[in-house]
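$ ./design --mode recover --in tokens.txt
reading tokens...
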């Protein structure tokens, strides 16, 4: 994943034509496209293969199982052409290590989730999840754009690791505040793919990011 615009599209789109249309409209403005269960369950992993020719793909499967199962999932993700995968840290260091060992690209570990409920269980352990990501050799962490002060604090823990932040737009976070707080990338879904003009909205977010760099 090259750091160019610092924008990652969350493609939570369930219709194949619509998904491909959004990707082709915004491709020039994004550094990667993130897909998860909302798109892959109805459309299949063929979507990853199809899009991977046009953009780097991150599979947001929040991998959180025993090491052997994590390994099997991560091997398949990269075999299909993804450049990164998102894992949970709460399954333990050995489970994250299995992801890192099987990956042929980035492994990003979830720390504190961006939604209001993320404060209940993920907030109290987020610093530990960040330390675990560093210890197990992950490429980076997922941190909440909805709480830029937490991005700043997590940066102190992870040093040079990537910080990738969802929660911009529909969840209330701001792209510029998040990047200014030390994030490497922001992830934006609904406010781009549901926009009347996704390309124009992606371009606007990219300009907003550039204004604080
Ligand atoms: O803490 C997280 N928050 C979050 O929103 C971890 C995530 N992986 N996500 C994902 O980011 C979420 O599943 C969705 O795909 C995307 C945000 O989309 P939107 O709120 O911009 O539509």
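writing sequence...
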């Amino acid at each position: 994943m090259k750091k160019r615009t610092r924008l990652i599209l969350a493609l939570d789109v369930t219709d194949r034509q619509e998904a491909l249309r959004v990707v082709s409209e915004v491709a020039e403005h994004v550094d990667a496209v993130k897909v998860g269960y909302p798109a892959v369950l109805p459309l299949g992993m063929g979507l990853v293969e199809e899009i991977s020719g046009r953009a780097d793909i991150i599979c947001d499967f929040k991998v959180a199982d025993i090491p052997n199962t994590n390994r099997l999932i991560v091997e398949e993700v990269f075999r299909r052409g993804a450049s990164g995968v998102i894992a949970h840290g709460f399954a333990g260091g050995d489970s994250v290590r299995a992801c890192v060992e099987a990956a042929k690209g980035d492994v990003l570990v979830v720390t504190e989730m961006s939604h209001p409920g993320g404060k209940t269980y993920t907030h109290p352990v987020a610093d530990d999840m960040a330390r675990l990501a560093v210890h197990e050799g992950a490429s980076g962490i997922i941190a909440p754009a909805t709480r830029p002060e937490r991005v700043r604090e997590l940066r102190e823990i992870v040093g040079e690791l990537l910080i990738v932040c969802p929660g911009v737009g529909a969840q209330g976070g701001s792209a510029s505040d998040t990047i200014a707080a030390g994030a490497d990338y922001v992830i934006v879904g609904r406010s781009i793919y549901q926009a009347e003009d996704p390309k124009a909205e992606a371009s606007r977010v990219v300009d907003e990011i550039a204004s604080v760099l």
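exit 0
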